[in-house]
């Protein structure tokens, strides 16, 4: 059985047994996943082609086990249509009290709003993530291996962390090792459902540059890469409103020849619940650098409209249309004006 068929079987099983989850005082297990269809009328982007594809799917199991009242191990095992089955993250945390805890291991990257649940489509409004979280934009890491501290003081929640950036397939990456430090601060405003967030990190990047034909001509260069995100989020019984701005500065490497660049991505998104339906809209913008702002290969702008339908407490369906200008994030193609359609079924248990 190939990987796609295996994942489809897992997704069907999840849908059939969506009510099944387990939790007691020591151990819990939950899961989520999705299957979607994507098609474009030009370009190739976000797993979508002009033929259309059902090859975008995902299944994950989340487990936790308490050793003591203060110590818990966490792990997420995932499978999807493009990567081998693996643990996305796995770590142990120790809680000193209700306000302070530390964790060690491979941890989901604390950056922005969507990265809290970037794999879990059930908790998202749109079938396709905002550009700031697109892999092609290279603005958000998946996870880090290291240690962090979480501290709550009144309405402020502060996360400080450091370690190495987790790369699923180091052999295919020209970044041999990436070390970083970072923080995220969340303020829950007095108005219920409203929160503000600032995220920032700096990574030391080691590029392996081969400027010749043999191993002896490989040169390692160091540089610093900076990222920062400003976020605002409001969620109520009726509204789901979000807006974020991301800043990304890449270093200059002589052998590569690429200059220092500053890219950015921002979006505003809103949804309104009407019974079981939630229509939504988003405007999304990506700019690869601050110099070639009119070059369509350096920017991408997106007008998204769609609707969610809640089938039951565990299964949700959605469809959306994206009107796109530019192709700065498209994996291939040169069409400046194009459309992407996405339909999706997701579940959680």
What does this structure look like?
With about 350 residues, the protein is mainly beta. It has a single domain, classed as Beta Barrel (Porin). It is built from one helix and 17 strands. The protein has one helix spanning about 5-15; strands spanning about 20-25, 25-40, 55-65, 70-80, 85-95, 100-110, 145-155, 155-165, 175-190, 195-210, 220-235, 240-250, 260-270, 275-285, 300-310, 315-325, 335-349. A 16-stranded antiparallel beta barrel has the order 2-3-4-5-6-7-8-9-10-11-12-13-14-15-16-17. A hairpin with a 4-residue loop joins strand 15 (about 300-310) and strand 16. The radius of gyration is 21 Å and the shape is globular. Mean pLDDT is about 85; it is low at about 15-20.
**Mean pLDDT across all amino acids:** 87
What would the principal axes of the Cα set say about the shape?
Answer: globular
Q: For the record, what is the CATH homologous superfamily label?
A: Porin
Give start-end ranges of low-pLDDT stretches. 15-19
Total count of domains = 1
């Amino acid at each position: 059985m190939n990987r796609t068929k295996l994942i489809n079987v897992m997704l069907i099983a999840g849908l059939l047994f969506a009510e099944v989850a387990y939790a007691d005082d020591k151990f819990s297990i939950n899961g989520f996943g999705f299957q979607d269809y994507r098609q474009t009328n030009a370009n190739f982007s976000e797993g979508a082609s002009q033929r259309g594809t059902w090859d975008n799917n995902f299944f994950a199991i989340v487990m936790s086990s308490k050793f003591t009242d203060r110590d818990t191990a966490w792990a997420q095992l995932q499978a999807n249509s493009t990567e081998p089955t693996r643990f996305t993250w796995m770590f142990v945390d120790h809680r000193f009290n209700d306000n302070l805890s530390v964790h060690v291991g491979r941890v989901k990257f604390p950056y922005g709003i969507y990265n809290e649940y970037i794999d879990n489509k059930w908790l998202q409004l749109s079938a396709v993530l905002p550009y700031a979280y697109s892999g092609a934009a290279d603005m958000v890491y998946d996870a880090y291996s290291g240690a962090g501290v979480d501290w709550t003081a009144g309405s402020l929640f502060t996360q400080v962390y450091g370690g190495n950036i987790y790369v699923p397939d180091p052999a295919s990456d020209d970044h041999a090792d990436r070390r970083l430090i970072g923080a995220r601060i969340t303020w829950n405003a007095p108005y219920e459902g409203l929160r503000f967030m600032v995220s920032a990190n700096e990574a030391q990047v080691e590029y392996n540059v081969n400027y010749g034909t043999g191993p002896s001509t490989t040169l390692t260069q160091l540089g610093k890469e900076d990222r920062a995100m400003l976020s605002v989020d409001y969620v109520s019984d009726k509204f789901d409103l979000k807006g974020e701005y991301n800043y990304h500065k890449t270093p200059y490497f002589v052998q590569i020849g690429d200059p220092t660049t500053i890219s950015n991505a921002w979006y505003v998104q809103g949804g309104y619940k009407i019974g079981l339906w939630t229509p939504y809209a988003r405007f999304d913008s990506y700019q690869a650098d601050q110099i070639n702002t009119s070059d369509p290969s350096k920017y991408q702008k997106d007008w998204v409209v769609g609707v969610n339908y809640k089938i039951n407490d565990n299964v949700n369906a959605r469809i959306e249309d994206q009107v796109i200008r530019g192709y700065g994030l498209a994996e291939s193609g040169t069409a400046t004006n194009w459309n992407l359609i996405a339909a999706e079924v997701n579940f959680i248990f």
